[in-house]
Description:
By secondary structure, this protein is α+β, with helices and mostly antiparallel strands. It is built from 3 helices and 5 strands, in the order H-E-E-E-H-E-H-E. Strands 3-2-1-5-4 form a 5-stranded antiparallel sheet, with helices on both faces. The model is unreliable at 89-93 (pLDDT under 50).
Amino acid sequence: xxxxxxxxxxxxxxxxxxxxxxxxxxxxxxxxxxxxxxxxxxxxxxxxxxxxxxxxxxxxxxxxxxxxxxxxxxxxxxxxxxxxxxxxxxxxxxxxxxxxxxxxxxxx
Length: 108
């Protein structure tokens, strides 16, 4: 069961208010098959804690790394992940498609 988006945003705000660095990753576009719809969020704390989901697990490790880097340097990122339907099936993945994720540092 997915978390309510407000839970993710509430936790991100709490982490930021407590003085820790926080990044927010948001799915801004999808094409083809995608595990999470546009508008899905993943909040990332500087120490690696996270809440929410932008991919159902398949790219979240990379998004978390980019979030930690965005916290450190303050630069937003536009990430694109995708695989052709043919390649997805050849490596045993059930979904092809593309997802664009915007990652930004947020302040309290």
